[in-house]
Amino acid sequence: MGFIPGSETIKISSKRQVVMPFVFRERLIISKSNQLRVTRNENGQLMLERFPSSLDWKELIAGMPVERVDIDSEGRYDPKKSPSFDEWMHEE
């Protein structure tokens, strides 16, 4: 197997822990408190996925509108009574 551009060699510690290269930790914004999901695809390759951190969720929630939204039993709301929510719902 040849060297793939953008890939790095990783080390396994004496405790058999994987040491991720700094360049990937930096690109993925990974710190010691983050969690990663490891999956193996059908080709036997390992895939890493970073779970959102509490800071990620705080930033997401900070962008949500804060207003009362009355939703009826059909899942509808009045956009005139909840204009910020309506605008947020239609962002791309």
UniProtKB/TrEMBL annotation:
Top-rank taxon: Bacteria
Segments for region (Disordered): 73-92
Protein's name according to its UniProt entry: AbrB family transcriptional regulator
Organism: Levilactobacillus lanxiensis
